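Colleagues,

Please find the record for the two-part complex below.
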Amino acid sequence: MTQTRAPSSAVTSFVVGSRYMPVYLAVILLVVVASIWAPATFSSAGLSQIALLGTFLAITALGQMLVIMTGGIDLSVPGTFLLGGLLMVGVGQQSDDRIWIAYATAVGAAVIIGLLNGILIGGLKLNALIVTLAVGQIVLGVANRYYTTVAIQKPVPPALSDWANGTILGVPPIFWIGVALAVVLMVLFRFTGLGRRFQVVGANPTASNVLGLRVNLNQMLAYVVAAVLYATAGVLLAADLRAPGVTVGAPYLLGPIAAVVIGGASLTGGLASPISTWAAAFFLAGLNQMMRVLGLPTALQFVVFGLVIIGGMLVSGDRIIKAVERVLRDRSRPRRREGRLVVEGGEP
Amino acid sequence: MSSGGPGGGSTAETVLELAGVSRQFGAVRALTDVSFDCRAGEVHALVGENGSGKSTLLGIASGFVEQDRGTVHIAGKRLRTDSPALARKMGLAMAYQDTSLVLAQPVKNNLYMAAPPDERPAFWRRKKWARRLLGEFDLDMELFPDSPAGFLTLAERQMFEVAKALVSDPKVLLLDEPTTALGPDEVEALHRTVAACRRRGVGVVYVSHRLPEVLEIADRITVLRDGKIRGSFDANETTEHELVELIVGRPFESAFPAAAETSGGRREVLVVDGFQGQSFGPVSFTLEAGEVVGIAGAEGNGQPQLFDTLSGRTPPRAGRVVCDGKELTLISTHEAIRSGIMLLPGDRKREALAPVLGVRANSTIQSLRRFSFLGFLRRRAERKAVKDLVAELEIRTPSLEQPVEFLSGGNQQKVSVSRTFLREPSVILAYEPTQGVDVGSRFDIYRALRARTDSGAALLVKSSDPIELSGLCDRVLVMSRGTIVEEIPGDELDELRIVEAIVRGPGVSRSGRSPFGVAMPKAPTTEPTS
């Protein structure tokens, strides 16, 4: 029995992991640039802004990441996000006893939205882009109506906003929730069968069906869990703002997608890293903060944001892997082993 | 049978010429220094087994595939770049095996769209134009200009592909296995069309592995094997037997793993009875534990559908399947796997592997429960199991985390096979287990599959390689037009016997038209259960 040669095992691991590198380089670059030209970015007020904005973005991005891992995309984020926050206001009725009931309602609503997306996309095989856009539109309509009839300019329960505006280890508790969610997802993908199956289904649905994995269930699961994450982020934002407005969801249409892309996920599905996605969300939040410190006009901020996303696509995980493909490709020519298989190739 | 055929060959213009063409796909040498030509008004048949390089040769001639070495001349002019559009402009037309029709549109519109712009009639005259064109090639009996293409039977579509190819008034026409989906009547009709082409001075390259048909229509026959030309003959100076020997090559010596000694009666693990599905059936057979059974037959005779249905990918229409004493509905792949039927798909990249994921993830995906504790993976146990298998099957990979898309075909297939060791199914369905696999790895795969059957599994192998079938299998079932037409028992098993069974063609006469081009009973003649 021959032992497999494994001299380049470390190389392989490095190359395989290289798809997640750019985001960390980008974070370092941002820290350097901001420290030189806009040191106020990292003032204590600035840092706390980044911690909050980054976390809202990170939690929604983790949801979007799950969907993108199945090869889909979710454009119903703003609606679900908004509805989550508003339900905390409306069902919470400014009563501290009702916080958990309100959160459960928000989660329940998110599950329904996710199931709707999941059944239409995973079950009926409709186009993810259009389905989630349409579902998002419906949810946004419902949320707007809910806002004007129930939740208009009312605050969340006081205990919740007090908690959100306190600190744990010097940072807002919301930040730690984002960290915890990223770690939970990381553990899920690394250490559980569920996470492994989810990755395989995302990487190749056709093969997964042949292998007897339940492809549509996994896809539905992605949309449901994602919607719960959006709603959770919405609740946390509401807690931070006390009284959420009706437009709070708008930035979360493109932002999470940008974070997932910059985080090195494969847009064809299967591969993504929760930790990198989380880091990418903080990169975007930091960039946003830096531009505000520099006093860039909003119009220009949009342009910079767009450019960053394009830049992220240009050095995206799939392209990096393609670039280093030569390192990974099995170049060993098949050697005909003597005395095993004799092929006669005589001329007539 | 031929009028302007081989006799006038030397004077006729050469319309297609390939000189010294070679092509390599990864590790596989598809063509080695092949020279081939076709003259105007000649039907030149190209015969060989599946995988002998016929399709590659056609691909190069038609500009779809780029050759590594050698030149292609069409109508005397050199094809400088691998562009199908250019090849077509130079006078080459090809009828495709899988049809490229707009099904919702009538025949006349499909024909209109297929014609190059300067050959098109005025739009409102296209029906008349279509009728005239179809008539010119003796196709007007079969095809009506106004019927939607979706209403054509598979056989008619095949004919229509030929018609579409002829629209551009080519100098040379390539036909790739044109009769696979056709019954005897339609083969005759197609041959009338081919004869019409010959009369008009079109050079026809006719690729097929059905020798009786080839001998009937061709003027010249060239045999291809393992990517090399093995001989060129005038059709009336050669015999079927002579060709078969050339197609197969000289006796092939190989070391296939022998079956373990069995003692006493064997246990039946899979009973298939009156089984019918899309484009096949009814078929009935039994697999015993420890047995390797081959499925032979020309391509397109229901073999992939049989495998897909047995593995739960497409639901069966009728019949009974019993695995390990349990009757299966086979409505989902999940059920099939759970009941112990495991498919090793032929299209590995698309259907078997998650290409971006590593060897380890791909290997254990069907047996994660084995490595789980309360939902968490015991990673060390998993890694050890995969490491042992990588060593045992000689999977050549730099690391267990190497994405399988960067492994060679043979190693990819070994990863796929390794799943049967971890899951230990009672029935393994292997579809073309060594397609695109280098010679060395082939042996490892045979050995691995034999190891599975020796420990009690039954193996059903579909292969287009008669050498593989005769070496690996204990007996072989020959499929044609969706049914099993012959069983070759172990003591008669050799490749010549298999090739003969395939090229002799089916003796089944077609009863009525079926949308699938295969003979199927008009009503379910078998009871679903007994």
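The mean pLDDT of chain B is 82.

Comments are welcome before we finalize the supplementary table.
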